[in-house]
Amino acid sequence: MITSSNKSNKFLIVVVGPTAVGKTNVAVKLAKKFNTSILNADSRQVYKEMDIGTAKPGLAEMAGVRHYFVSDRSLKKPINAGIFEREAISILEKEFLEKDTVILSGGSGLYVNAVCDGFDNLPEIDPGIRKLLNSRLDKNGLTSMTEELKESDPQYASEVDLKNPHRVIRALEIIQSTGRPYSSFRKKEFKKRWFDTIKIGLELDRALLNDKIETRMDKMIDQGLFEEAKALYKFKDLDPLQTVGYREVFGYMEEEYSYEEAIRLLKRNSRRYAKRQLTWFRKDSEIKWFEPNEIAEMAEYVNGRLNT
User: Fold this and answer.
1) Nearest Cα to 155, choosing from 116, 201, 187?
2) What is the pTM of this model?
3) pLDDT at 5
């Protein structure tokens, strides 16, 4: 990472925060103030088949601002943090030819870190291993898998959110494919970028955020979330669909629980996901925190950093 002692004249404004906090609205307003584009760091909104369940911004919300990584590929060709890093850096190289600032906005902490600090090169994995692990998760739950991870790679198990099935499965598939601990591939060596980063975090009172999450979920259901999930059911074992907003509906479709229980789980798991996101981002001491309506304060902070 470029530090204050080795400062560039190019700046990546990073906007992060939990689901439903209002990242898109803030990023668009900042993009208009600084006349720039937005790279969307959301690991699910990138897929063109997944609209409602990812709360993907529509044309009105994007307000004429150029957005990258929104509906630009099929879920049949999944992206990961390593691919995202390479593609995002390539885009930034072009954008920074004409602009001094670009915005990176999203709630996928791993994707944000990949762009800001670099991402370790991981081996290619046989998709069959992931499919078997996902089937095991559906059949037996997460507990046995977290126990296996603790035994196979205690170092990574002590660092990762063991309640996040995606992270646990990712580690286990690397272990099963290579016979090596996942932690052995994670060098945590920052890559030196030619741009500086200005990080902004969005936060709300927990009760207010939970209300916004539940309101958003009600809206998604009214917009046709269950129908969208039904259309995607044949792809349910693909990695992009192993996420909150779809798995709960798939469980209902497989008659594991009632419609009412599916809605309860959708809201509960979304709240838990937001909590995990906040836990991730609060570990980053470079982030300056604001409430979503403090646009003027954010712009002032960014201008102060640009002129330092």
Assistant:
1) 187
2) 0.83
3) 36
